[in-house]
TrEMBL record:
Pfam families: 23S_rRNA_IVP. This is Four helix bundle protein. It comes from the Bacteria. PANTHER family: FOUR HELIX BUNDLE PROTEIN (PTHR38471:SF2). It comes from Candidatus Falkowbacteria bacterium CG10_big_fil_rev_8_21_14_0_10_43_11. The lineage of its organism: Bacteria, Candidatus Falkowiibacteriota. Gene3D superfamilies: 23S rRNA-intervening sequence.
Amino acid sequence: MTIEKFEDILAWQKAKQLTIYVYGLFLNSRDFGFKDQMQRAALSIMNNIAEGFERRGDKELSNFLFIAKGSCAEVRSMLYVAFELGYVSRNDLNNLYNLTVEISKMLSGFIKTLR
C-alpha cells in the first residue's frame, strides 16, 4: 500500500483514536494543568506524524516520528498518575496503555523502514 497522505498512515489513525479517547475522558476534569498536558501530549503524537510526513523527507519524517514516540511515552507515563489519582478507571488505563504501546510499536517499525 502506498501512503499518499498522512491520513493513510495507520499510526496516525490510531493516534487520532487515542486523542479522541483522551479528550473525552478528561472533558469534565477540573485539574486543568493535568488535563491540558495529557491532551497536548496525545495531540502531539498525531500532529508530529502529520507534520513529519508533509515535510517530504525521510530524515525529517524520522525525526518527527521519534518526537511522536516521545509524546506517546508521555501519555503512557501520565496514565499511571491519572489512575493513582482516580481520574481514570482500570479499564480506561488498560485501553489507553495498550493503544499507546501499539502506536509506539508502529512508529518504531515506520522509523526502521525509513533508515
